[in-house]
Amino acid sequence: MERSDLLAIADQTPTPCYVIHEGVLRKNLDILKEVQDRTHCKIFLALKGFAAFCTFPLLRNVLHGTCASSLYEARLGREEFGGEVHVYSPAYSEQDMAGLLPLVDHIIFNNFQQWRRYRKEVNLCKRRVGVGIRINPEHSEGDVALYDPCVEASRLGSTIKVFEGESLDGIFGVALPYVMRAQRRCT
After folding, report:
1. CA-to-CA distance for 143 and 154, rounded, in angstroms?
2. Which tens digits make up the pLDDT trace of 11-68?
3. Where exactly are the structural domains of the chain?
4. CA dist., res. 41 & res. 17, Å (int)
5. 129-175 pLDDT, tens per residue?
6. pTM confidence score
7. Which site from 27, 71, 119, 169 is most exposed, i.e. has the minimal number of CB atoms within 10 Å?
8. How would DSSP label each residue in 142-160?
9. Pairs from 134-139 (Cβ < 8 Å, separation ≥ 24)
10. Of the candidates 172, 171, 168, 134, the residue with the CA atom closest to the CA atom of residue 154
11. How would you list the strands of the sheet with 173-175, edge to edge?
């Protein structure tokens, strides 16, 4: 498609709106499928970053499910996307937990205190819910402390010191935060 064609479409499109290039989306999905096939990993759609549910029929053909950070994102993932639903939040209320447990396949707790608080509800849930603990690796890669989950004194995740003496009974895995390093411009 030529630039002039895109400009003509833009002139005729009501605003505000989102424009999604299906060809580029399909190309990216081909890359994700290749990564999954080669590594035998599962890739999930992070709903906080991209929740355009009109694309879900295309995305669900490649991706294994969704990652959510709230009850409403988890509902969107379960009801509109299908597949596995994973959830992580720095904090959960009792109401959150009551709404999330019937929807999710995996839940990540920020710390052992949360796990102890909600362990009974998880174990009584009619569906099997896998449990993980978020780790704070105490290694910062980010250049902006405000957005870095691993800065000193961060409350996001449990440090290795916190793991000492804790029982891992009932916990199937750990989650590491993804810290995107700011790209530096080469001159």
Report:
1. 15
2. 888 888 887 889 999 999 999 999 999 999 999 999 999 999 999 999 999 999 999 9
3. 43-175
4. 34
5. 999 998 888 777 777 777 777 777 777 778 778 878 888 888 888 77
6. 0.82
7. 169
8. -S-GGG-TTSTT--SSB-H
9. 134/88, 134/108, 134/109, 134/110, 134/158, 134/174, 134/175, 134/176, 134/177, 135/159, 135/160, 135/174, 135/175, 135/176, 135/177, 136/177, 137/176, 137/177
10. 134
11. 45-46, 65-68, 84-88, 106-109, 130-134, 173-175
Contact 134, 174 (CB under 8 A): yes
Q: Which two tokens stand for residue 151?
A: 């800065």
7 CB-side CA count, 13 A = 3
- Both tokens of 57, joined, read 């029929």
In this structure, what token pair is assigned to residue 50?
């991209």
For residues 176 and 157, give the distance between their C-alpha atoms in angstroms, rounded to a whole number. Answer: 8
Nearest to 89 by CA among 141, 145, 48, 146: 48
Please give the torsion angle defined by the CA atoms of residues 143, 148, 153 and 158, in that order, rounded to the nearest 10 degrees. Answer: -140
Query: What one-character DSSP code corresponds to residue 109?
Result: E
Retrieve residue 42's tokens: 């599962």
CATH architecture assigned to 43-175? Alpha-Beta Barrel (3.20)
pLDDT bracket for residue 181 (50, 70, 90): very low
Bond preceding residue 16 cis, omega within 30 of 0: yes
